[in-house]
Amino acid sequence: MAKRKRLTPPQAGYLDGAGSAPAPAMRALMPSEPPIARVAGEASATAALGEVAEAMASARAEGRLIETLPLSAIDPHHLVRDRMAQDPEEMEALTASIEARGQQVPIEVVALPQPRGAQTHGLVSGWRRLTALQALEQRHGDRFGRVKALVVAPPDRQAAYVAMVEENEIRANLSLYERARIALKAWQEGIYPTRKLALQGLFGAVSRSKRSKINSFTALVEALDASLRFPTAISEKLGLDLVKAVEAGGAERIAEGLRRAAPDTPEAEMALLARLAAAAVRRPAPPAAAPAETAPVATPPEPQILEVEVDFDGSRIVLTGAGVTPALHGALQAWLRRQGAAG
């Protein structure tokens, strides 16, 4: 009969490794981490870091990386802005939203190749959001002193202008005057070689008829931009009437009328423009044609009397009277020559 073994209580520290560590002599004989495993681990870590860095660089280049930048680092005048005015109620609502919920949509900026003082980035789109944050920074200090931004890298300035225009077309519709003005400015700044290419480049997605109206408004911008106080309030109909007035030579008259009246509200300026446009294209009625005077009846000349004496024997004809003139003499000679040639 087999003898039973008596079980002993568990030894304290057996499972925590205190009693399981190998002796120093044994540790010396145990091999360390294989070199191949260490090299492989380091290579794997380096490759992973390289992939992360490449992904970050690609995201930044493609405008997919949101960065937090100081407001003072943004140059809002990097591009000529297409938006000329901001609706006070809309700006108040946007500012209140950012104050309550924070900035939800990032702005778009480009890194300046040569920073201007503290400004290291130029604004592409998001002018209203940047303006709202600047107002909040003045009220609350550093709490709103930074802005979320996508750092984009457009291939050229044309692409930057297109990005600005398209962003505003989607978020807040621009007036015809603002569209015409930015197209004109982009051409004058040398971004596009011609005005036509500026219109096509910036507003290629709009209909041809709308692009034609924008083109018409460029004449209005050229003639009256320095005189208008509320140009964004000009409606399509009034704008086209003003274009006709400008083309009719009424630009100076309209500008002088604006300077003298100096309207202080959009409504007053629009009413004045309507009157000035109508006056510029109005043509005075042509004067009534005077009744034609009865032309005097020409008195026919008195018949010239010729006396003819014929001498058949001598084959001679003698003409006498007031009708015998040098002209008659020449005509008779010519007739006689023709008769001789015909005979």
Automatic annotation (TrEMBL):
Q: Which residues form a coiled coil?
A: none
Q: Which residues form the signal peptide?
A: none
Pfam families per the UniProt record, alphabetical: ParB_N
* Region spans: Disordered: 1-22
Q: Which CDD domains match?
A: RepB_like_N
Q: Which SUPFAM superfamilies match?
A: ParB/Sulfiredoxin
Superkingdom per UniProt: Bacteria
The ParB-like N-terminal domain covers which part of the protein? 67-169
Q: Which InterPro entries match?
A: Chromosome_partition/occlusion, ParB/Sulfiredoxin_sf, ParB_N, RepB_N
Q: Name it.
A: ParB/RepB/Spo0J family partition protein
